[in-house]
Amino acid sequence: MPTTLHNEAAVAGIGQTAYTKNSGVSELNLATECVRKAIDDAGIEPSEVDGLVTYTMDSSDEVEVARTVGIGDMTFWSQVNYGGGAAVGLVAHAAMAVATGAAKNVVVYRALNGRSGQRMGQGVSGSIISSDLIHWSWYMPFGLLTPASWIALQAQLYMHKYGATSEHLAHVAITQRKHAQNNPNAAMYGKPMTMDDYMNARMVCEPLRLFDCCQEDDGGCALLITSPERAKDMKQKPAVIRGVTQASFEGQEQMTSFYRDDLAALPEMELAAQRVYEMSGLSAKDIDAACLYDAFTPEILMQLEAFGFCGRGEAKDFVTEDSLTIGGALPNNTHGGLLSEAYMHGVNNLAEGVRLIRGESCNQPDDVEHVLVTSGVGVPTGAVIFGQG
Questions:
Q1: What are 154-203's pLDDT values in tens digits?
Q2: What is the pTM of this model?
Q3: Domains of the chain by range and CATH?
Q4: Is the pLDDT of residue 1 over 60?
Q5: Residue 311 CB-density burial (10 A; 0-12 exposed, 13-18 middle, 19+ buried)
Q6: Is 82 an annotated catalytic residue?
C-alpha cells in the first residue's frame, strides 16, 4: 500500500458545462451534464465509475447524480468542506480512494447556480448557517460581512507592508482577462480589459475594485480520476498526480484567521507548498505553469511567494514583468481563471491544469511538464501538481 500519493492516480477525463449567468436548469442538471462529459471524455461507460466526490456546499447528492448519469454500484463517496478550499481536496480524496483500492474510477464535481441561485459573495448577509458565524460575529460590527471585505483587510496590510499598489493588482486581472479572449467558454470572452477599465471600475471594498473580484456564475465542472495504469488504456492523455495535499494551519478560521502573527502571509499555503513539493520531489523551479486560486487578485501575489516563485514582498515586481503571461516565467490561469473564465469554486482551474498537461489549453505554453493548481485562499486549502504520463 502506498505511503504517499506520488504517481498513484491520474486524471483521465474532464467535463464542463457552458458557464453562464442564468443556466435555466437545476443544479442537478448541471452536475449530471459535467459528470457525464468527464466520463465520456475518458472513453468509459458510466457503469465503470464506482466513486463520487463533491463539496459539502454542492446541492446535488451523489446518489442522485449516480442514478441520473447511469452509474451503478458505488464503493466510495465523500464530501469536502470549506468552499473553494475543497477544490484540491476533491482530487486528494479521489486519489486516496484509487491508491488504496476503495474505488477504481472516481469522478469529482462541482455544480452551482452561483449567479441565478445562491450567490457566494453575499457572505454572512446571505443564508449561511455554520459554526463559522461564531468567529465571524466578532468582525460583523466592523462591517466585515463578505468574502471581499475579509480579504480586503488582509490585502491592505500586505500592500502597506510590501509597497504593492492597485496597478500591481491590475496586472493580474488584465493578464487573465487577456487569456480569456482566446477561450470561447469564458464568461468574459469578447470583453477585453484595459488599465483604464480596471481603474475606473467601482470600488467594492478598498483596495478591491470590481475586477479584483471573481465572478458569480452558473455551471458545472468534473474530473475523472483513476490509476495511471488504467488511464493509459483510456481515451485521453492522462495527467498524473505527482503530489496532492490538503493543508490547514494553526489558528485557521474560514476566510479570516485574523488572530495570527502575520496577516500578510499565507501559512496554510506555505504548508501546502512544503508538502506537495516534498511528495512530488519537485520545487518551484520545476513548475512550468500554474492555476493559482484567484477569487481575488491579491491572493495571486501572496501565493506566488508562498510557493517559492519569488521572495516575500517580491510578487509585485514578478507580476509586472509579464511573468504570468503565456511566454512568461510562470503562465498562470491560462483559461482566464475564476476572475475571467468562471467561478466554479476552483474545479475549472483543475480542469485547465489537466488541459495544460495534455497540450490542449486555448493558451498553450511550450514544453509544459508540470502544473501546480491550488485551492481557496483564507480557508483550509491544498495543492496538487500534475505531470506528464
A1: 999 999 999 999 999 999 999 999 999 999 999 999 999 999 999 999 99
A2: 0.96
A3: 10-115+215-388 (3.40.47.10)
A4: no
A5: exposed
A6: no
Catalytic residue, from 55, 109, 189, 343: name it.
343
| Cell 476503495, residue located | 102
Given a cut of 50, whether residue 348 has pLDDT beyond it is yes
Strands (E) in the chain, as ranges, are 10-16, 51-55, 76-80, 106-113, 203-205, 208-209, 218-226, 239-247, 289-291, 370-374, 381-388
- State the catalytic residue, choosing from 19, 189, 277, 293: 293
Report phi then psi at 266, rounded to 5.
-125, 80
- One-letter amino acid for residue 22 of the chain: N
Q: Are strands 370-374 and 289-291 parallel, antiparallel or unpaired?
A: parallel
Q: How far is CA 212 from the centre of its chain?
A: 16
DSSP 216: -
CA distance 153 to 170: 18
Identify whether 343 is a catalytic site residue. Answer: yes
CA dist 2 and 365 (Å) reads 33
